[in-house]
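Help needed: design a sequence for this.
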């Protein structure tokens, strides 16, 4: 267990910087901080190092209230604290940065690719590609799981996006870097350079995919229709939406797996339970998503004055919700700091809520079930062969190094 933060210094204006500092997220367990903030109640006024103030909703009920009210808390600005100023360049054009009715119209363009029925058709291909990844590492007694499985998310999203397999490794690495995360603290100048490089890499790959005329049964093939819906000739709306889908899809599956493997490696009772199961069911996946909570926070901007949790929120203020905190809320989850593999009900918010609930949730769940089934089938025992290395990021709860010692079946 990492050391919890002991106290914090209050800023002169009453806004505390305690949950923005990205370095904290790779150095300690932030759950102790979030637990204290939940107990204090209300929304918490915070600030960034450059003085930008924002409100933070940490409790499950407050997170739900913000995510469920798109009329008061708009998505058409940015979803990450690191992107502020005039907002995201894709605001009002990319699917995750729009509000209804435009958001609903964009969703109709892509939803047919990600229904339960469509996901079932993808299942065979997902399993075949994941088996190839397992075949590539089978027999290795020790290896870095993150490096060996760098194309794991694109075994699911690559064909769906229409990205050539030759580009899967580079897009896998770039999507993590593009979310502002690194495995070591960086200067602000280096951080901005890394972000620029990652964004450029992804945009180049996706631009080439779009120019190749991808088929209609891929996300890239549907993106030109999204451009028609938005009707913004000043921006490349097709490219912005392709980018949004890639960034939204790639973190959830690998980071949920990484965090769950760390837990399984250190809990003999849970591993014993896991290997006795014939198949991975929905309850285990939901608990893995709750436990891992790959996305720490999501940003909204208030467009009207309101009061939430006894806190006055003014129009124009930035409001963050913290699903990673809400998913350990003692008021909602019995024994929230215990992984309960058959927990039911499970009101986790890893996929969000309301109109912006993850459009690709069925595909992500299918990928998670497939991976855990293959892990059970192939692995007799395993343990950590060194300390995991976590991302330096307040947005993505990520692992970039996961050394494992594996005994194969």
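Sure. Designed sequence:
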């Amino acid at each position: 267990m990492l050391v919890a933060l002991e106290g914090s210094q209050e800023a002169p204006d009453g806004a505390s910087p305690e949950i923005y500092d990205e370095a904290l997220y790779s150095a300690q367990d932030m759950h102790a901080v979030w637990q204290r903030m939940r107990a204090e109640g209300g929304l918490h006024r915070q600030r960034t190092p450059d003085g930008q103030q924002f409100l933070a909703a940490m409790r499950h009920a407050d997170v739900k209230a913000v995510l469920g009210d798109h009329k008061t808390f708009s998505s058409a600005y940015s979803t990450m604290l690191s992107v502020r100023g005039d907002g995201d360049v894709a605001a009002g054009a990319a699917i995750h940065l729009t509000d209804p009715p435009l958001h609903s119209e964009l969703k109709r363009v892509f939803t047919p690719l990600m229904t339960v029925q469509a996901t079932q058709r993808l299942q065979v291909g997902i399993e075949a590609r994941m088996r190839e990844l397992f075949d590539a590492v089978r027999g290795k007694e020790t290896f870095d799981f993150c490096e060996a499985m760098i194309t794991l998310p694109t075994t699911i999203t690559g064909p769906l996006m229409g990205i050539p397999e030759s580009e899967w490794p580079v897009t896998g690495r770039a999507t993590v870097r593009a979310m502002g995360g690194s495995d070591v603290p960086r200067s602000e100048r280096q951080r901005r350079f890394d972000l620029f490089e990652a964004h450029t890499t992804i945009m180049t790959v996706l631009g080439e995919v779009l120019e190749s005329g991808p088929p209609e049964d891929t996300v890239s093939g549907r993106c030109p229709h999204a451009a028609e819906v938005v009707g913004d000739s000043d921006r490349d709306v097709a490219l912005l939406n392709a980018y949004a889908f890639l960034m939204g899809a790639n973190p959830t599956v690998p980071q949920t797996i990484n965090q769950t493997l760390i837990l399984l490696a250190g809990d003999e009772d849970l591993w014993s339970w896991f290997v006795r199961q014939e198949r991975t069911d929905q309850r285990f996946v939901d608990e893995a998503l709750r436990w891992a909570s790959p996305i720490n926070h999501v940003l909204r901007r208030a467009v009207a004055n309101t009061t939430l949790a006894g806190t006055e929120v003014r129009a124009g203020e930035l409001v963050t919700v913290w699903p990673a905190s809400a998913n350990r809320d003692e008021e909602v989850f019995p024994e929230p700091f215990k992984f309960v593999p058959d927990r039911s009900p499970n009101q986790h918010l890893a996929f969000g809520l309301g109109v912006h609930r993850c459009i690709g949730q069925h595909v992500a769940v299918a990928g998670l079930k497939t991976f855990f089934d293959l892990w059970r089938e192939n692995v007799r025992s395993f343990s950590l062969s060194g300390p995991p290395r976590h991302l330096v990021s307040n947005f993505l709860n990520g692992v970039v190094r996961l050394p494992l010692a594996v005994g194969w079946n």
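Residues 1-15 have pLDDT under 50 and may be disordered.
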